[in-house]
Amino acid sequence: MEKTVYSYIKAMRDIIVENKDFLTQLDAEIGDADHGTNMARGFNAVVEKLSEEDLDLKNVLKKAGMGLISSVGGASGPLYGTMFLKAANVAVDNTMDPNVLCQMFKAALDGVKERGKATKGEKTIIDAMEPAYEAFVEVIDSGGSVQQALEKALEAAKEGVEYTKTIIATKGRASYLGERSIGHQDPGATSFTLLLESILKNYMK
Ligand code: ADP
Ligand code: MG
Ligand code: MG
């Protein structure tokens, strides 16, 4: 692995902190105006718990997952925390083997779906994450590079965010709004897309 897992976590923290107000604004429209604050608190706590000497992929992902769960009060904490914990479970040493990455992505997606009992079309993280996962696997399975897979995944996640504008929220706080949630993009789908963007950028650095 060229880049340390720590550098990816820090890149995630940075993009979340940069977009903190934007994410909170999105949540103000259909939720309780704290998604940016929640995510920034969580990722800041995680980065504080880690150090550059933490090089073990599994261990860092596990620490990140536990850190998010323990520091974020909102729904997003346990969901994002589960994402990291499940990926940690299937991570192998420090390999960035494309097939292992596919398995980690799949475990993370299944974990979030199970934890939040949500499927695609409910205006949640899943609307960005599932298409991103599918695009990632498709590229890897057809012999593409990890960079190409990340690029396609990011594209699919962005389309997923656009899709959330067209649908009614049926999970989480935004579901209280019913039809009035239409026209607004989902904060969680947006933060997931930002995380993916930070991964791609750090990968290409
Ligand atoms: P809270 O809603 O508790 O204030 P946040 O504002 O941090 O928490 O997170 C809201 C985001 O969490 C939503 O935009 C949505 O994407 C995501 N979310 C909420 N419930 C679920 C769920 N059951 N499954 C997947 N994602 C969910
Ligand atoms: Mg909120
Ligand atoms: Mg809240």
TrEMBL record:
EC number: 2.7.1.121
Listed GO biological process terms: glycerol catabolic process
SUPFAM superfamilies: DhaL-like (SSF101473)
Catalytic activity reported: dihydroxyacetone + phosphoenolpyruvate = dihydroxyacetone phosphate + pyruvate
Pathway: Polyol metabolism; glycerol degradation
Sequence ranges assigned to domain DhaL in this UniProt record: 3-201
GO cellular component annotations of the record: cytosol
Pfam families attached to this UniProt entry: Dak2 (PF02734)
Superkingdom of source: Bacteria
MF annotations from Gene Ontology: glycerone kinase activity; phosphoenolpyruvate-glycerone phosphotransferase activity
Keyword terms: Glycerol metabolism, Kinase, Transferase
Family matches, as InterPro entries: DhaK_L_YcgS, DhaL_dom, DhaL_dom_sf, Dihydroxyacetone_Kinase
NCBIfam families attached to this UniProt entry: dha_L_ycgS
Task performed by this protein: ADP-binding subunit of the dihydroxyacetone kinase, which is responsible for the phosphoenolpyruvate (PEP)-dependent phosphorylation of dihydroxyacetone. DhaL-ADP is converted to DhaL-ATP via a phosphoryl group transfer from DhaM and transmits it to dihydroxyacetone binds to DhaK.
Assembly and oligomerization: Homodimer. The dihydroxyacetone kinase complex is composed of a homodimer of DhaM, a homodimer of DhaK and the subunit DhaL.
Designated name of the protein: phosphoenolpyruvate--glycerone phosphotransferase
